[in-house]
Amino acid sequence: MKSILSIFVFSLFSLFIYAQTSPRCQHQIGPSFLTTNDSIDVLHYDINLNIIYLSKKTIKGYTNLTITTKINGLSIINLDLLKLNIDSVKVQSQTISSWNYNDTILDFALNNSIDIGDTVLCSVYYHGLPVKDPSGWGGFYFSNDSSFAFNLGIGMQDNPHNYGRVWFPCVDDFVDRATYDFNIQVKNGKMAVCNGTLESSISGTNSTEYRWKLHDDIPAYLAAVAVGPYVAVRDTFNGINGAIPIAIYVKSNMVNQTIASFANLKQILTAFETYYGPYRWERIGYVGVPFGSGAMEHVTNIAIGLGYINGSLTYESLFAHELSHHWFGDLVTCSSAGDMWLNEGWAVFSESMYQEMVYGKEAYKDNMRGLLYDVLKNTHRSDGGYYALAGIPHNLTYGSTIYDKGGTVAHSVRGYLGDSRFFNMLHAYMNQKAFTSQSSNEFRDFISSNTGINMDDFFAAWVDAPGFVHFAVDSFKTGNGINPPYNVEVWMRQRLNHKPNYANSNRVPISFMDNQWNRVDTIIEFSGETGSQTFNLAFKPSVVFCDLEERLADATTDYAKLISSTGQISLPLTFSKMDVAQASDSSLIQITHNWVAPDSTGINYPGLRISTRHFWTVNSLQSSNFDAAIFFHYYKGVDFDNDIIKNKDDSLVLLYRPHGSIAWQRTSFTKQGNWIAGYMKVDHLKNGDYVLAVYDYHYLGLNDSQLMSDDFSFKISPNPSSDEFHFEMNDEFPASVLIYDSVGKQITKLKMNALYINHSEVNWKPKGLAAGNYIVVLVSEKGRQLYQTKLIISK
Question: What's the rounded Cα separation, in Å, for the pair 561 and 615?
Fold first, then answer.
């Protein structure tokens, strides 16, 4: 289900605008306050209603319930019914003399108790004005012109939010499923449209009774009725299990625009059957209703706002979202509100999946990239914080975390497993768990048992914890062999975005390429903050790309492009752009906007503020004559650059490093814009990391480089060493040596000792430190970086 939700991401001064304007279904099921689901199971509902006089905004009739028990000795029946007037109650066709009803729960005694395996027929006669949710979204509606009446099976504000109970007595939760008969009387000239198949219509003098039957079982919130001046737009879909009728009910003057708006419906159905398995329901159906705030996925009778059926494909993703619920949500239903991402996150994911088949793989990637961008930029704002998917707070059951982040996590499950395992698993899941409810943990365990890949660590990090992980190739090294196979060791780095712990059992796609465009795609596995793995290749790689095809929705927005011509290049949603000056042959450029803080190797000295929120990585396979300028966007906005841009007198600079084991250095740039927003232009793009930083205006007058003579030198000896290092420089100005490990953690600070004119030195013993590469940074007394180099501790 979707309610209207338009999220407009700020315009980056004509660089990017991304907006989600699709209506969004919203049905929240809160903590169950109902007492029915522990003792009884309704097997079948026979709903008989008079909805003739729409101007009175009332319904009248009765519902027969075929009930069995979950316990022995059941003597009391409890049913959910909300604020309707009860006329009488019957058990086994015998009127009972008393019942209790508090506008929420109806309970009555049986003449004889029943045991497990027994059934009893109960009938409730009632009338009244069915309610709408206080929020205005959900419940039972009568149009002001008395032309329509319809229900939406949830209430967004009520607690609990299941809203089958607003129009018939039921067990109103996710777990209890039943089949249905609907017998609805309406005024002649109107039609009643319900779930399932229209069995017959019986016309009278002033009214017509429409009889519908739904043969497969559903929870009560998915039952539906719509009354209006309807005609059916019919077709047939030849699905995996045979021909399935299509019926879309709209006003008679909307037939042509309905055909146009649903032009791709069969392709969407083919996509979902291909990805998820056969469509299991007896009809494919939508019904247009006068509702301007979204849609609801009632089984075989999706309620869709008439305004969205406008003759264009504008709301096609809404139609696809609701249809996908016939797998995620209707066929296999989440077992509680805390598991709602299994319904709604996977329906959002399906909005991209259908596009992959109908419009191509790039359409899928573009849609998913835009979704991830929106999640990283806006979800914590709209939901008021960072939340795990499982066990979401009641008031956020249908927030952006569940929908949008849920959609990106579903995408990441695909990337984690790989397409073959992923789609085979979904087919098996829909087949084996059809017509049941499942929890998030049960879904996790099913994936593990079906694919042979243990999903405990993935779910712990991606589903059961807030925030986002971030993956990057830190560096790689090819062995000294001159003949294939070549041993290539790749070092990975994990960073965190509002996440409490590092993820384990990571499976990150990487791609090796050489200058002849040989390519190998594989998976690197590691746990924790860092890790490495060695691969045997038939060629020596020139570059290693991290997740080149964007298969994981980590804290990055990436864009990869094959460039073979000059001119300006848009790099959507990466806060950057390019201007290619020279390109006689093809070059592959991957730009990654990293939504995490970089490490601060070599730059933690007074007056300099490095971004704590984002940086860029350029990774490319360039032709010999490729040359391009790259522009990095800065913006003094919330959650962007307001952490470093404080004062108009501050000096904004751009720092660069070739890879993560090298200290940051200031790089040449041209600033375009004012102190609030603009671009930092680098004339010649190079592979490596780029980050924004600001010099506090209190330090702008400093120029420590003037302290250094033209013949300045700084030496380390011996290097490598396993015991002691000697640092010396040919000057005596006050300075210190900072030593960092490979991930940017400062190990020590050593003050250089001026022993005589033009000479300073200091000794250092690396006690207890592991063998490996370390970074040495020489800084002045004022904290300005003067020189950097590498130090190696040998075994």
Answer: 19
Give 17: exposed, middle or buried? Use CB within 10 Å, 0-12, 13-18, 19+. Answer: exposed
**Overall average pLDDT of the 186-192 stretch:** 97
Of 268, 395, 282, whose CA–CA distance to 337 is shortest? 395
Distance between CA atoms of residues 16 and 6, nearest Å? 17
Helix (H) or strand (E) holding 461: helix 456-462
Which H or E run includes 257? helix 255-261
Q: Which residue has the tokens 């995996």?
A: 240
Which of the given ranges, 32-41, 595-604, 727-736, has the highest pLDDT on average? 727-736
Q: CB of 483 within 8 A of CB of 520?
A: no
Q: Is 710 exposed, middle or buried (0-12, 13-18, 19+ CB in 10 A)?
A: exposed
**What is the reported pTM?**
0.86
406: number of CA atoms within 13 Å, CB side? 27
- At 743 the pLDDT is 62
Q: 426 pLDDT exceeds 90?
A: yes
The DSSP bridge partners found for residue 185 are 50, 209
How far, in Å, CA of 300 to CA of 136, rounded? 24
386-408: b (≥16 Cβ within 10 Å) or e:
bbbbbebbeebbbbbbbbbbbbb
- What is the mean predicted confidence (pLDDT) over 427-443? 98
Instruction: Determine the Cα–Cα distance for residues 379 and 375; give it in Å rounded to an integer.
Output: 5
Tell me: the pLDDT tens digits for 360-371?
Answer: 999 999 999 999
* Per-residue confidence band for 7, with pLDDT thresholds at 50, 70 and 90: very low
In order of their start, the domains of the chain are 31-228 (2.60.40.1730), 555-701 (2.60.220), 704-793 (2.60.40.1930)
Residue-by-residue DSSP string for 376-392: IIIIHHHHTS---STT-
Question: If 0-12 CB within 10 Å is exposed, 13-18 middle and 19+ buried, where does residue 725 land?
Answer: buried
Q: What is the pLDDT of residues 747-780, one digit of tens each?
A: 899 999 988 888 899 999 998 898 888 888 888 8
User: CA triplet 669, 672, 675: central angle to 5 degrees?
Assistant: 105
Do 719 and 764 contact (CB within 8 A), yes or no?
no
* Cβ proximity of 493 and 474 under 8 Å: yes
pLDDT of residue 31: 33
Q: How many CA atoms lie within 13 A of 715 on its CB side?
A: 11
